[in-house]
Amino acid sequence: MTIVNMTIDGKQVQAEYGQTILQAARQAGISIPVLCEHPALPPEGACRICLVEIEKQRSLHPACTYPAAEGLVIHTRSERVVAARKFTLELLISDHPLDCMTCDATGDCMLQDLAYEYGVKGDRFKGAQHRYPITDPNPFIQVDRNKCILCRRCVRACQYINDVEAISVFYRGFNAYIGFGADSVMQDSPCEFCGSCVSVCPTGALTEKKALGKGRIWEVRKVRTTCPYCGVGCQLELHVKGDQIVRVKGVDGAEPNRGFLCVKGRFGYDFIYSKDRLTTPLIRDGDGFREAGWDEALGLIATKFKQIIQESGPDALAGVSCSRSINEDSYYMQRLFREALGTNNIDNCART
User: Which of 35, 44, 74, 256 is most buried by a 10 A CB count?
Assistant: First the structure.
């Protein structure tokens, strides 16, 4: 492994050959702002916010794509760098809605944070602004192209994380915008609604429809848990306001999902509050069902099990454990079938 030595903001830094300046700076605890880069995605160099000054070089360079090399002397906060970042932010804000007071991404928007840090108010450049309609009819994700900064994070997440390639950039220059499929809407594209695009979006361009108006980032408490849908064990971060879950996110960097989820894990939590959930046992009575107490229901099940075993043997029984149950419940279920009932016919819905 080749190690290179650099100087970043006067600090001696070592990096592995093949790393970028941004990666080396992060390892050294030096912050370089960036909008288009994401640790799980290949670098793009699209936003130009991470520009740094390298001694003996004429131009500023994006830290997210420039390779670490021996002897580099780098300045991340020089007057020239700060001016370039502020200029780029002013250009972005000039075509960005200034509705932060009502935007659901407020407090969780990287563009907003950088505009505050660099004192960008959005009144320097006056010109044409996009006015895209917010009309995507899909049930999960609100698409607001007016807030898109064309960082292409969503494009790369769809391509490299989910391997679907449902998102692309259409046209060029000022007319460029993010689109889906063959320039259609999300639900008519190959999109699987995993929400990876939402999880990497640095602004409010892609947001969960179910979470709109339910609570700002500072109003929720975050609860880490495990997804109940299958046996993979993806880690979830529940955003809870009061006693209600308002949104679900992946836990950044956590194994095994590294912060990314499927459509069920991200959007399928409504069953918790469903009025159709059973709260008491039901026993078939004629053509319908009647409510029963737990003692009566469990007694009936035991009687039926004994009857089946007596008539057809224990292998006439089989059990399927639900992955929404905790591991301990599945363990006791298989012990019930193997030791008490005498059959190994036990399965789990996650075994696919």
Answer: 74
Task: Answer for the pair 134, 141: CB distance below 8 angstroms, yes or no.
Answer: no
Last residue of a domain, one of 245, 277, 309: 277
Q: Is residue 341 part of a domain?
A: yes
Q: What is the residue-level pLDDT of the chain in tens, covering all 352 positions?
A: 689 999 999 999 999 988 999 999 999 999 999 999 999 999 999 999 999 999 999 999 999 999 999 999 999 999 999 999 999 999 999 999 999 999 999 999 999 999 999 999 877 888 889 999 998 999 999 999 999 999 999 999 999 999 999 999 999 999 999 999 999 999 999 999 999 999 999 999 999 999 999 999 999 999 999 998 877 889 999 999 999 999 999 999 999 999 999 999 999 998 888 988 888 999 999 899 999 999 999 999 999 999 999 999 999 999 998 877 777 888 999 999 999 999 999 998 777 5
Last residue of a domain, one of 52, 77, 102: 77
**Contact present, 63 and 50 (Cβ < 8 Å):** yes
What is the domain-level CATH number for residue 235? 2.20.25.90
* β-strand pairing of 177-180 with 244-250: unpaired
Q: Using DSSP, state whether 6 is helix, strand or coil.
A: strand
Give the domain range for residue 18. 3-77
Q: Can you tell me the distance from the alpha carbon of 15 to that of 9, in angstroms, rounded to the nearest whole number?
A: 15
Number of domains making up the chain: 3
| DSSP percent split of the chain into helix, strand, coil, nearest 5 | 30, 20, 50
User: Is 171 a domain residue?
Assistant: no
Tell me how far apart the terminal alpha carbons of the chain are, to the nearest angstrom.
40
Indicate if 9 and 71 belong to the same structural domain: yes
Which long-range contacts (C-beta less than 8 Å, at least 24 apart) are formed by 66-70? 66/20, 66/21, 67/18, 67/19, 67/20, 67/21, 68/4, 68/6, 68/15, 68/16, 68/17, 68/18, 68/19, 68/20, 68/21, 68/23, 68/24, 69/4, 69/6, 70/4, 70/5, 70/6
